[in-house]
Design goal:
The chain is α/β, with parallel strands linked by helices. 36% of the residues lie in helices and 20% in strands. Strands 10-11-16-15-14-17 form a 6-stranded antiparallel β-barrel, surrounded by 4 helices. A 5-stranded parallel β-sheet has the order 2-1-3-4-5, sandwiched between helices. α3 packs across α4 and α9 packs across α11. The two termini are 48 Å apart. The mean pLDDT is 94.
Length: 488
């Protein structure tokens, strides 16, 4: 996938000057030997601020965009935290465990103690760093922690270099997808808001684009027998080229882009189609496109793409599973109650690779009030079964950042419905729905990553500054939500 950073990780060992510098140096070498990925091993061991400046120069010149500050021994708390302050990318701070009971005099590093001072100094300076759940380990354990840091680092680098391109205001009655932009800027994200008329003009400038037949052929290959509306493909191909050219021409100083697109009510009558299939294709290329100008939904999708390195989707948390369907197809076969299940749906924006089967169709909801021919362009099918993470980053109407994360799965049960849709199961979903999604005023759109990525997303949300009490998740049955009636 394109449109996401590659991480070049560096490691810098630190050493308090009353400890043998070789202790940190040798432990750093052991970590580097245990780590299987690309790694720049900074030769300077940081004992002072002067060393810190020298090491920063070395890691920058090596092209590192993420850094491990490694306490091979107790470490100098000022110099090591200034490394975090002045490095230009995300940092992880981790400490060495003692190796053997046979060398606890000259070979004892006291990094367990040093980690406390490091974390205290980071807090004093209002600095963010990734600190693993248990941040003290052997060379092999630290190498594993570095692997776990990579998706977090990718997301932080990506967010800091992201532009959101939006087209048009939200549709009427979609105020739930509110998008205060102040917090986008706080996160380092740029936004370019455009009119639908700007997009319409750009689309018509692509009339007769010589690249259209090639894109149509690619669509035909992807759709196969699901190509039920071949007559609409040239228009969809023209629209896809319009968006891709817009991204390249408007990226500006930013490296990465996501799009919040308009798709109704006037889009289909003026363009003559709906953009769902094109949105799905761009999302599969690593450029997520949200529906209904959902700006924070687009940012959420982008974070999920970068963390998972895979295609994501954006779905309505849409409807309950009928009781008779639960009784006949879920109960006794899967360990979920009826209230643990729901249907996630959107008109047709989920990429073909994430559908069990797919067909190009018309948008049934829109076609209830419009001619069917202008509503063509959706990609319909049941979402593939397997593990998922439902999540969303959101700024509230009063510009407060919050997020939710819930891991679950898509069940291998036919939906018997339309659109891009699946039967989802999340443990204790009923309570999560009431006491997080409803109680905290989240909109109906949620991003879906295909796999369990709760651990990584939780760390990303912490790193970007969301207070931990505002990172919500589905509480187990024995843990009560603050707003849950204890007598219910």
């Amino acid at each position: 996938m394109s449109n996401m950073p590659e991480i070049k990780l560096g490691i810098v060992a630190v050493s308090r000057d009353c400890f043998p510098k070789e202790l940190s140096e040798n432990r750093r070498k052991a970590v580097a030997a245990a780590y299987k990925g690309e790694l720049y091993e900074c030769p300077t061991v940081v004992e002072s601020e002067v060393d810190m400046q020298k090491a920063l120069k070395e890691v920058r010149e090596a092209g590192c965009n993420a850094l491990v500050v490694y306490l091979g021994n107790f470490g100098p708390e000022t110099a090591e935290t200034l490394m975090v302050k002045y490095f230009h990318g995300p940092c992880m701070v981790v400490a060495a465990a003692e190796e053997t009971g046979d060398n606890l005099v000259q070979g004892r590093g006291d990094a367990y103690c040093g980690m406390l001072n490091a974390s205290y100094n980071l807090k004093l300076r209002n600095l963010k760093a990734y600190i693993p759940e248990y941040p003290v380990g052997t060379a092999e354990e630290v190498a594993q922690m570095m692997e776990e840091f990579l998706p977090v680092a990718r997301a932080i680098v990506a967010i800091k270099n992201l532009k959101v391109i939006s087209f048009g205001p939200r549709p009427q009655d979609f105020l739930a997808c509110n998008a205060p932009i102040k917090r986008l800027y706080d996160l380092g994200i740029e936004i370019e808001e455009n009119s639908e008329l700007d997009l319409f003009e750009a689309y018509h400038k692509h009339d007769g684009d010589p690249r259209i037949p090639e894109v149509v052929a690619d669509m035909e290959k992807e759709l196969g027998e699901g190509n039920q509306k071949p007559q609409i493909l040239p228009k969809l191909a023209q629209y896809e080229l319009t968006l891709l050219d817009w991204v390249e021409q408007h990226k500006g100083s930013r490296k990465y882009v996501t799009i919040a697109g308009k798709c109704w009510p006037a889009f289909q009558t003026q363009f003559g189609f709906v953009p769902c299939y094109v949105n799905s294709r761009l999302t599969a290329k690593g450029i997520p496109v949200s529906c209904e100008v959902d700006i924070w939904g687009a940012v959420s999708e982008f974070i999920g793409t970068v963390v998972s390195r895979d295609t994501v989707t954006l779905l309505d948390i849409n409807n309950s599973v009928p009781a008779d369907m639960y009784e006949s197809e879920i109960k006794g076969k899967f360990n979920y109650t009826l209230k643990d299940t729901f249907m996630g749906f959107h008109c047709g924006n989920t990429a073909s690779g994430k559908l069990s089967f797919c067909s190009m169709k018309y948008q049934m909801i829109m076609a209830r009030t419009l001619p069917e021919e202008v509503t063509q362009g959706t990609l319909e099918g049941d979402i593939i079964p397997g593990d998922i993470t439902f999540f969303r980053l959101q700024s509230t109407s009063d510009a407060k950042l919050r997020a939710y994360i819930a891991q679950g799965e898509v069940l291998p049960v036919a939906t018997r419905s339309f659109g891009a849709i699946g039967i989802f199961a999340i443990p204790e979903m009923g309570r999560f729905y009431r006491h997080v999604l409803v109680e905290k005023n989240y909109p109906h759109h949620g991003a879906v990553a295909f796999g369990h990525f709760g651990k990584e997303l939780y760390e990303v949300f912490k790193y970007i500054g969301i207070e931990v009490e505002e990172i919500n998740y589905n509480q187990p049955k024995e843990v009560r939500y603050p707003t849950e009636n204890p007598f219910a």
